[in-house]
Amino acid sequence: MNEHHPRKRFGQNFLHDPGVIQRILDTISAQPDQHVVEIGPGQGALTTGLSSAVGRLDAIEIDRDLIGPLAKRFGIDSTFDLDAPEGATFTSAGEHPCLRIHNVDALTFDLCSLRSAPAAPRLRVVGNLPYNISTPLLFRFLEQADCIEDLHLMLQKEVVDRIVAPPGTKVYGRLSVMVQSYCSAERLLTVSAGAFRPPPKVNSAIVRLRPYRPLPYPIADPAWHAQVVAAAFGQRRKTLRNSLSSLMTADQIAAVDIDPGTRAERLSVADFAKLANASAACIGPEIP
Predict the structure, then answer these.
(1) Which of 109, 204, 221, 225 has its CA 20 to 30 A from that of 197?
(2) 181 and 76 co-located in one domain
(3) Domain range holding 242?
């Protein structure tokens, strides 16, 4: 098998450190009655351990050049066809009968379609996310939270810092509020650059996200809430009176006991839900 050279356009950095791989598998602790979805299996560093542990594993891989080696490694080379259309699915046999590999883009793929029935176990999502599209992928997963049990995601350490940040800190921002509005967020492991090939210029970390059911702070209109959060943090140095001026008045902000003269980073996740819910009810905005 020819060595696959990691592609910059896919943000590929492949795990190769056996000790780190085992620590990650131990942290995930996949079980036989669970359904796991691996985003970007790459060269299969985590896939082997996951496929041996779970009842069902779906691997989402966009790079067609990796499909062939993965298919061969997991006993599906007899059914693999390089001329198969984009979006094709390849099913394993032999030692890994639970594995299916999907040649699709995780940014557009409907993860919920992988569940066999509404009553089937929710998905456990695992992934070493490309740094260049990690935030869009996170938002895509949040859109599909209803069918997800939890997520174990490897991201740039600075991104994990932002996800778990509390209000009032320098890195607390839009990503913090949006993720924490829908999930509990826990930093787990820090992974040094040397665990990857090629080594990235930054360290990585693993975060565990568990979607809330129900949400602790209900959100009446998710699209409007997202717009309010984005506008509030669009110019961090401005007060809410100025950053939200195109969406609501200072009086409307004050009406929910929030000081229009404060900045976005001082507001809690609950404050943003309260502000967005009240302003949506008052204004009745048309969300583009």
Answers:
(1) 109
(2) yes
(3) 222-283
177 within a domain of the structure (yes/no): yes
Please state the separation of Cα 120 from the chain's center in Å: 21
Contact 92, 41 (CB under 8 A): no
Residues 67 and 191 in one domain: yes
Q: What is the CATH number of the domain that holds 197?
A: 3.40.50.150
Same domain, 136 and 196: yes
Largest CA distance in the chain: 67
Q: Which of 211, 243, 259 is the last residue of a domain?
A: 211
Is residue 217 included in any domain, yes or no?
Answer: no
Contacts of 162 (CB under 8 A, 6+ apart): 171, 172, 173, 175, 176
Q: What's the pTM?
A: 0.88
Question: Around 15, how many Cα atoms within 13 Å sit in the side-chain half-sphere?
Answer: 27
The answer as to whether 216 is a domain residue is no
The dihedrals phi and psi of 250, each to the nearest 5 degrees, come to: -60, -35
Distance CA 50, CA 44 (A): 10
